[in-house]
Design brief:
- The structure is a single chain.
- The chain has 3 helices and no strands.
- The protein is mainly alpha-helical.
- Helix 2 crosses helix 3.
- It is elongated and about 50 Å long.
Length: 88
């Protein structure tokens, strides 16, 4: 009887870290379509987040995005960072 080797997560591009993270959480198997959906979700989230951060930067007539621009953009997206201390 021949043993077949399991496909390693490295054989699928872009999923190695996601697969190992899910296994650490106790999830054994996930449908392959979930990777595509999460990738699409993160693309949309990052596009909206970057657009908001750039808006804050352009409104203050600067060329460099600061940490506070990122904080305000995340707050706009509904992801408030608690216990953030501005060290500047």
């Amino acid at each position: 009887m021949l043993r077949r080797s399991k496909a390693s997560p490295e054989s699928f591009p872009g999923t190695a870290s996601t697969v190992s993270r899910n296994r650490r959480c106790g999830i054994k198997r996930i449908n392959g379509l979930i990777y595509e959906e999460t990738r699409d979700f993160f693309k949309i989230f990052l596009n909206d987040f970057m657009r908001d951060a750039i808006k804050y930067t352009e409104d203050t007539r600067r060329k460099t995005i600061t940490a506070m621009d990122v904080i305000y953009a995340l707050k706009c997206q509904g992801c408030t960072i608690i216990h953030y201390v501005d060290l500047v």
